[in-house]
Amino acid sequence: MSSALRLLAKRRFWPLFITQLLGAFNDNLFKFSMVILVTYGIYQDPAQEFQFNALASGIFILPFFLFSSLAGQLADNYDKARITRFVKTLEIVIAIIGGLGLWYQSVPTMLTALFLLGLQSTFFGPIKYAVLPQHLEKDEVLAGTGLVEAGTYIAILAGTILGGIIIDSEGNGVEIAVFSVLAVAIVGRIGCEFMPAAPPQKKLEKIDFNFIRSSIQLISATMHIRRLYLAIVAISFFWTIGSVLVIQFPPLVKNVLTSTPAVASLFLGVFSIGIALGSILINRLLKSEVSARFAPISVILMGVFVVILFFIARNWQGLSGGELYTFQTFMMHDGAWVLLATLAGVAIFGGMFVVPLYAFLTTTVDISETARTIAANNVVNSGCMVLGALAALGLSMLGVSTTDQLLLVAAMCVVAAWLGQQLHLACD
C-alpha cells in the first residue's frame, strides 16, 4: 500500500488524482443537495420521490451513453491535459447554472445542470484512465487505478455527507450549497493546471461527430477482443447494480427507515468508504498483478450482503405519524450498526470486484487506443445503467417496493459473478 501511496507525491499522478477527486466531489455535492432538497423539501409522496431519484440518475448517466464515443476520439487524438483544462473550465459555468436551480428551487434547471455535469464527466472519463498507462510504469497501473477509484469514492463520501448536512429536512441551507459547488469547481480548475502534457500517441485521425455511428463503430472495434468484452460487460453489470442501489438509498432512508437526510448521507458515505477500502484491499491481495481471480467470489459475497440488507430493511420498525429518526437517534437504534456493517460489506466486495476489471481495460490494448477503449466501456456501462434506472422506475410504477427491489440487485450479482469467472478463465 505504501508503494501505491507514493504515487500521490509524483506530479505525473497527483494533479490527475486531485482533479478527479474534486470533480467527483462536486458532482455528488450538487446531486445530493438537489436530491435532498426535492425529496424532503418539494415532494411529499414516496412514489414521486423514488421516481425523481430514478429520473435524476438516468439524466446524469445519459450523456455517457450519447457522447462517450466522441470523448474517446478526442482523448486519443489531442492532448489529454488540454482537454481536461477545457472541461474543468466548463464546470464553473455549469456550477453557476446548478446554483441558480438550487436557489430558486427550479427542478428543470437543476436537472439541466445535472445533465451538463454528466456531459463534462463524459469527456473527462476516458482521460482519467487513459492517462494512467501513459504516465505510470506498467507495474504502477493497478495501484494508480485503485487510488483513482478509492479517491473517487472518498470524494463521493465527502460530497454526499456535505450535501446532507447543508440541506436539512426543511430545505434550508441552499445558499451554502450554491457557494460550495462554485468554489469547488474553481479549485478543481486550478488543480488541473498542473497536469503534465499527455499528447496523442498516434497521428491525428478524422473525428466522427455522428454519435450513433461512432458509438456502434467504437463498440464493434473493441468488443471483439474476448477479455475486453467480458471485462466491459462485467463492469456494466456492476455499475447497473450500483445505480439501482444509489437510486434506492434516499427513499429507502426516508420512507422505510424513517430517517433524516443526515442518515441518507451516512448510507452513501458508508457505501463510498466501503468501495474505497475494497479498491485498496484488492490491490494488496493481487500484489499489483492484473487478474480476475477474486472477481467471482467478491461479487457473490456482495450479493449475499444485499440479501441480508433486504431482510434488515423488511423487518425495520420505523416511526409513525411522519416522525423521522435524527442521526443520533438512528445510531441508537438496535439494528443500526448491523445495517451499516451490512452496507459496508456490499460496498467492500463491490470495490474488490470492479477495480481489477478497469486495469484490464487499460493494459490489454495499445496505449494509443486506451481512451477509446474506456469510452467504449462508458457507452456500454451508461446504457446498462440507464436501463437499470428505467427498470427501477418501471417496477416502482408497478407497485414493487424499494425494499423488494433489493432482491433484483442480489440476482444481478449472480450474473456478474458468472461474467467474472469467464474473464478469469479467459485471461489467467
TrEMBL record:
Gene3D superfamilies, sorted: MFS general substrate transporter like domains
GO cellular component terms, semicolon-separated: plasma membrane
Cell compartment(s), UniProt: Cell membrane
Membrane topology field: Multi-pass membrane protein
Keywords assigned: Cell membrane, Membrane, Transmembrane, Transmembrane helix, Transport
Predominant location category: membrane
Pfam family, one: MFS_1
Transmembrane annotation, as ranges: 21-43, 55-74, 86-104, 141-167, 228-250, 262-282, 294-316, 336-359, 379-400, 406-427
MF annotations from Gene Ontology: transmembrane transporter activity
Protein name listed in UniProt: Predicted arabinose efflux permease, MFS family
Organism: Parasphingorhabdus marina DSM 22363
